[in-house]
From TrEMBL:
It is an enzyme of class 5 (isomerase). GO terms for biological process: chorismate metabolic process; L-phenylalanine biosynthetic process. The keyword Coiled coil does not apply. It catalyses: chorismate = prephenate. Its EC number is 5.4.99.5. It comes from the Eukaryota. This is chorismate mutase.
């Protein structure tokens, strides 16, 4: 099971490691954190296709030795593999009041919601959701039993939480693109992986609040943000905060990561297999004439990749980046309700 990974925002942690200062709202610093999260997410998707059959939790635990080969933040990624059996979406776990799960209170809509409610209730008691980078999927959670940590106030007080949207997109779009229709009855395992995947994706999209505050603090653009906020011009705000160069670099990097993370590193493998088959400026497959943009059929190129890099890129392009920007826009739309707010550490 993954531990919840939060930023070193508590003063104790920060002062001990000296990591937190005003520069935390520096855009480059925040982008570094976003890159770490993309490793977790990409690696997780790849592992959806590694196992021939769904692994029970105990087998997944045995799989832990593999983590020694990867940085600790990849550990989160391993838990991202939802349906390790590509033949099994286990859709009944998302279906409200499905007959397979009559044992629990009928007030919970689906097995996944039930699992979320049970787990997030305990996490709320240990004050997980007082951290400014952690957002629950369940409402009406219990109060913490631990005394509050005094976090630095980097964001104005807000209740922006897009997890309901994220969950719907994950169920309706992401899972069908990773797993075929089917049921292998490993409901607890697949729901566990869904929850870990959704939590990492949730942290990623809600990081948009830190990005938005950092952009708002930029003296070069603050007046324009204020003008657009007063006009309630969401499209104008979205256009101003959009950085296509960053997005393009990110998507190209993701494609390369999906290529590399998905490789069978067998005997005699040479990294040059990838550069031989790929256009290194776009990481798209070379066509037979050597030009870029060939279909991403890793198997045909004998690279043995476990996932189509285009699939990973499209999940980010269609869902992760737009939801992050939506969080940024909503955060900025409420920013002038706290005109005197200044981020403090
Ligand atoms: C996160 C940022 O804001 C926007 C969203 C991005 C994303 O979700 O990856 C990347 C660039 C921007 O269009 C940023 O500027 O880094």
């Amino acid at each position: 099971m993954s531990n919840f990974h939060t930023l070193p925002l508590s003063p104790t942690a920060a002062s001990a490691s000296g990591t937190l200062d005003k520069s935390f709202l520096n855009l480059d610093r925040i982008r570094e954190e976003l890159v770490q999260m993309e490793d977790s997410i990409v690696f997780g998707f790849v592992f959806d296709f590694l196992h021939a059959t769904k692994t029970a939790l105990i087998e997944r635990a045995a799989f832990g030795w593999f983590l020694l080969l990867f940085p600790i933040h990849i550990e989160l990624a391993l838990t991202l593999s939802h349906c390790n059996n590509p033949e099994a979406q286990n859709n009944c776990t998302y279906t409200p009041n499905h007959e397979n799960f009559e044992f629990y209170s009928p007030t919970q809509s689906s097995f996944l919601d039930y699992f979320f409610a049970e787990m997030e209730a305990v996490h709320a008691k240990v004050r997980r959701y007082t951290a400014p980078d952690q957002y629950p999927f369940t409402t009406n959670l219990p109060k913490p039993v631990l005394p509050p940590l005094i976090y630095p106030q980097l964001l104005y007080p807000n209740n922006i939480n897009l997890n309901a949207r994220l969950k719907d997109i994950y169920i309706e779009k992401v899972i069908p693109s990773l797993c075929k229709f089917g049921d292998d009855r490993n409901y607890g395992s697949s729901a566990t992986k869904d929850i870990d995947a959704l939590q990492v994706l949730s942290r990623r999209i809600h990081f948009g609040k830190f990005v938005a505050e950092a952009k708002f603090q930029d003296p070069k653009t603050q007046a324009e943000y204020i003008r657009l906020i007063k006009l309630k011009d969401r499209a104008g705000i979205n256009a101003l905060l959009t950085n296509l160069a960053v997005e393009e670099r990110l998507l190209k990097r993701l494609r390369l990561k999906a290529l590399i993370f998905g490789q069978e590193i067998g005997d005699g493998y040479t990294g040059s297999d990838i550069s031989a088959a790929m256009d290194e400026t776009t990481w798209q497959h070379k066509k037979d004439d050597g030009s870029s943009g060939g279909e991403s059929d890793l198997k045909k190129r004998k690279l043995g990749g476990k996932i189509d890099p285009n699939l990973v890129v499209s999940i980010y392009e269609q869902f992760v980046i737009p939801l992050t920007k939506e969080v940024e826009v909503e955060y900025l739309m409420g920013r002038l309700e706290f005109p005197d707010f200044k981020p403090s550490v």
